[in-house]
# Entry
Amino acid sequence: MSTAEIAIPVPRARRRAFGPLATLARRRFQLTARTPRELFVPLLTPIMFALVIAPALKTALHTSASYESFVAIGTIGLLIPLNTMFSGLSVIVDRVSGAQPELLTAPIPRGLLVVGNLLVAMATTALQVGVLIGVALARGIHFHATGTGIVWFVATAALFTVGMYGLAEILASRVPRQEEYIARLPAIAILPWFLAGALFPITALPGFLAWVAKFLPLTHGLALMRYGLRGDSTGLHAIWGLSDPTAMAALSLAVVGGFGLLLTAASIRVFSRSAVR
Amino acid sequence: MNAIEVTKLSKTYPGGVEAVKGIDFEVAAGEVFGLLGPNGAGKSTTVGMLTTTIGPTGGSARLAGFDVAKEPLAARRVSSVVFQEPVVDRSLTGRRNLEIHARLWGVDPREAAARIDELAGTFGLADLIDRPADTYSGGQRRRLEIARALVAHPRVLFLDEPTVGLDPRIRAELLEVIASLRSRTELTVLLTTHYLEEAERLCDRVAIIHAGRIVALDTPSALLGALGRQLVEIRVDGSVNSALASLRERGVAGEDAFAVGSRVTVPLHRHSSGEAIAAIHDLGLAGAISAREPTLDDVYLRLTGDSLAAAA
# Structure
């Protein structure tokens, strides 16, 4: 074998990050596609809420038709945490019985593994949110979205997904077994949902809990998504108490964006540190 | 330049467990080097430090000149690992597993495709390579992992107990595969094992590691040669120390004779086994006597007081 054949491949600058990142994301996508339950299980509960429970509550409580769209968006606040937490679970599976140990010996920054997983979690979340909204529309639930509103909605959903995936990745890095991870899932994915104004405005909460709810990124996320898809700024007003909806939306987007950036940075750090014993 | 240079490398885990205690060794390019020791001796921790998944707490290590602590990406670029446990994406095809490795190690896609076909042929995977890895047998999966480790033309290949948990037939088949790696003269192999015959058969040099320390390092023949051409083993009913003293006094045993439990082992340098056994009978040392060629287990036993086969 010639010397030329054993020369170490020197990566081009352009592919230093994007080539491996694309490989890692494609790998994660292929693994996810081969476990369809990861795609469909997180959808079940939100669809049940949006299509069955919300119409039933509307009828039972004699509320207006807009309550259905209120809850439909509220269920996105359940769908995103559930899906990202399921994605985090697959990180543990990868570590225990998959090829993650091999990936940790690859000549790439280990943070790319987190980013690759994040990209796929965002893609599957986008698919699921799209399905949820599509099913809601098919069920006759109306939204009043403008082009700008859709931009607010997409930006919020994306940043909130980034933050929640960061949280899932941190938990997966710190928890050794799937059972322990699953035991923590309700407290992280479900409990905040009941406090964040998913089924009713946070003004209906007892005073102390309403104050707590204002600090939850999910409360800001839901208020923003409703502002985007329904043109309804009451959720933002309940948080900020200002008169300018755009200013309140910008403030809440900053909160959700900060949540996303902070948790992503923390997840990369925690993962990279946990990769070295 | 040496392919691997390890200097006073040590690792103490949180909680105070000293897994590796300041070991030193060098491996020349193209050499097959064995780390031989029982479970818990520090072999896998050493491989973990060399592959940058375990942080050393002291000393240094270089792969192809790259410091594993200061230049981890460069060190990882020139090396590959076959792990003790199966580490594959089971739902992906064998080819996809190899492709992912090639991409992450920066191999050009066209070159990688040709290389994968070549390795699939070499390792008897050509008919399996497009099947999901979870349909492979244990031996096939191991061969896939070795093929994967070679896709990117590593300079250093780590084989961490590659035959553990395999049935004897698959193990024998895999040893053939590993032995064939020797023909790749550009490749340096560091093999960890607790199987004596693997180390003897595959390695140019062997470091015997015990409780985190290297207690002997040489070629298998030199390590065995130190115990003479043959040795006599005596199971003694009474005091082994007085039996050993009598044997030395009589000139049958030298300073390298040793006793473990009720067994005295006498390396034979000047005497034949017949002469030694006759002398032992003359001394009236009762018990079973046997003569045989020395093994690495005897080397390990003499150095540590433990049987490697029993400790593993």
Remarks:
- Chain A has a mean pLDDT of 88.
- Chain A has one domain: 14-274.
